[in-house]
Amino acid sequence: MSRKGRLLTIEIVSVALSIILFWVPLYFVILTALKNPQEAARMNLDWPTEIRLWQNIKEVFVFRDYMLVRAFWNSTLLTVLSIVVLTVVSSMAAFVMQRRQDKASPWISFFVLAGLIIPPAVVPTIWVLNGLGLFKTMTGLVLVEVALGFPFCVMLYRGFMGTIPKDIDEAAVVDGYGGYRLFFQIIFPLLKPVTSTIIVTQAVVIFNDFVNPLYFLPGSKNVTLQLTLYNFTSQFISKWNLLFTDILLITIPPLILFIFFNKRIVAGMVAGSVKG
């Protein structure tokens, strides 16, 4: 087989795998959201005898005194606050790590990037948050999300900053810029490609987060979108049509965000791979 033939075979297999791994489950979610409770309980790919999507959506929205609306607000607030803090803190840290060269620099880089490997510890984190009076608060959960996303964002920012000449820093210092003014007025505007990537990728991760809100922000008033899935499944009975309708509703915002900004994600990921 020629090289072109092998490449074509690989492409066909890749497309087929993507259809199986992504589109088939998505089709199953949409199909089940269209069904009534009896047909949804069969968990098959048969087309429903009656389309009940709108009725299912209304039931999901009004369930438990419009909990889905409250959850959407909490998830949006969590995502926005976390992204703002994450982009500012990680970009500043990456700037210092990229420009500073001394004996402590390798150790600082090691401890920051070790966060990509070391798994989060739930019980000690709860103990720390409780000691600070931040357990079961939005502020505490924001700090947790920032801490978990910090190493990855620093890695991206640092790689991109390697493409920015140090002459720009020196020229800005000569012109009277220094400290925060140098960073926020000169350097940070140059980081738009990688900042766009971080905003989109981390927004999807935080918006879809299930574990951290479950552990660090319990309570019906603090519920986030992913935790609303508990409303429709239990030990004795599960409302599968409403459950999959809920899954469909909470999947749409991140999916739309990813579809419209996927090119920016790729551009930002590779922007710092080659130094100028």
TrEMBL record:
<dbReference type="GO" id="GO:0005886">
    <property type="term" value="C:plasma membrane"/>
</dbReference>
<feature type="transmembrane region" description="Helical">
    <location>
        <begin position="240"/>
        <end position="261"/>
    </location>
</feature>
<feature type="transmembrane region" description="Helical">
    <location>
        <begin position="182"/>
        <end position="207"/>
    </location>
</feature>
<feature type="transmembrane region" description="Helical">
    <location>
        <begin position="71"/>
        <end position="95"/>
    </location>
</feature>
<keyword id="KW-0813">Transport</keyword>
<protein>
    <submittedName>
        <fullName>ABC-type sugar transport system, permease component</fullName>
    </submittedName>
</protein>
<keyword id="KW-0762">Sugar transport</keyword>
<feature type="domain" description="ABC transmembrane type-1">
    <location>
        <begin position="72"/>
        <end position="261"/>
    </location>
</feature>
<feature type="transmembrane region" description="Helical">
    <location>
        <begin position="12"/>
        <end position="34"/>
    </location>
</feature>
<dbReference type="GO" id="GO:0055085">
    <property type="term" value="P:transmembrane transport"/>
</dbReference>
<keyword id="KW-0812">Transmembrane</keyword>
<comment type="similarity">
    <text>Belongs to the binding-protein-dependent transport system permease family.</text>
</comment>
<feature type="transmembrane region" description="Helical">
    <location>
        <begin position="141"/>
        <end position="161"/>
    </location>
</feature>
<keyword id="KW-0472">Membrane</keyword>
<keyword id="KW-1133">Transmembrane helix</keyword>
<keyword id="KW-1003">Cell membrane</keyword>
<dbReference type="InterPro" id="IPR035906">
    <property type="entry name" value="MetI-like_sf"/>
</dbReference>
<dbReference type="InterPro" id="IPR000515">
    <property type="entry name" value="MetI-like"/>
</dbReference>
<dbReference type="Pfam" id="PF00528">
    <property type="entry name" value="BPD_transp_1"/>
</dbReference>
<feature type="transmembrane region" description="Helical">
    <location>
        <begin position="107"/>
        <end position="129"/>
    </location>
</feature>
